[in-house]
Amino acid sequence: MTMGDETPVTSLVLPVILRPILSKLERQNVSAAQTLRSAFSKAESSHPGVTHDLVLGIVRRADLNLNMNESILRLQGIASDVDVEYRLARSEDAFQELNRKSASLKKILSRIPDEIADRKTFLETIKEIASAIKKLLDAVNEVAGFIPGSAGKQALEQRKREFVKYSKRFSNTLKEYFKEGQANAVFVSALYLIHQTNMIMVTVKNKCE
Questions:
Q1: What is the pTM of this model?
Q2: Which of 12, 65, 95, 165 is the most exposed, fewest CB within 10 Å of its CB?
């Protein structure tokens, strides 16, 4: 099973699988955890997708039969609690609200694998996702006023447009799912939304911190 760059799973292995593991290691050996964290971050920055290939290699070696899209989506539920890469440090209400809304959306999306088979529950979750998307966009608009310079504002606006595009794609994927029943397409589309949410946070971080 080769994911390739056409899916966002390659960019989510580091924050969703490896960083939570390193956070646990940090409790036992701080320097080892920090060394590994730095090494993985540098490797991923130089060669995007290398951590995905590493984990995929381990999965194959262990002869595990799992859907990486589903697994990473599930694990996102706990990853948000430990990943400071996508959390804003500024104390103003607008930034803290954006932290809350981005974490909330990702957490709701992470429930999809457990709830997709129960139509009634899943329909309620879809309503929650739609509401969380709107709240996230409102929070982004609030933060936009803090971004200095027109270039920074344009960069965030571009990120917002990308996020909206993938939100619409997610909605279309759901319609297809109720016709065709392809759950994996929903998982991939949800991962794209998580990736776009992360990219918004990185953009705000780079322009404001």
A1: 0.86
A2: 65
